[in-house]
Specification:
Layout lengths: L19 E5 L6 H6 L3 E5 H4 L10 H15 L5 H8 L5
Antiparallel strand pairs: 1-2
This protein binds zinc ion (2 copies).
């Protein structure tokens, strides 16, 4: 599914359009759920997992993106639906 978080295909952090990776906002066991619900963002390698500034290593950035994901989801669904799907509340 298309991202419900981002319209442009560019790095969410630095806006480059080169070398993009698709990041699943709620990853690990929730990866497929993220995919199915459009809870994905584009990130360049540096902001994904190829440097310490990447979302997989930077807790703060990870949390920011998880909050963004929940806000986007709740435009069309209730908080209860989000918690049912993801198992916690980030807001
Ligand atoms: Zn970037
Ligand atoms: Zn990722």
């Amino acid at each position: 599914m298309e991202s419900i978080i981002q319209k442009e295909k560019q790095c969410l952090v630095c806006h480059t359009t080169v070398g993009l990776h698709k990041h699943h906002v709620y990853y690990g066991p929730l990866r497929q759920i993220s995919e199915k619900n459009g809870l994905t963002v584009w990130l360049c390698g540096r902001h994904h997992n190829l440097s310490d500034h990447g979302v997989h290593f930077d807790r703060e950035l990870d949390m920011e993106i998880k909050i963004l994901g929940q806000r986007a989801f709740e435009k069309e669904h209730s908080r209860e639906d989000f918690i049912k799907l993801i198992g916690r509340n980030y807001l």
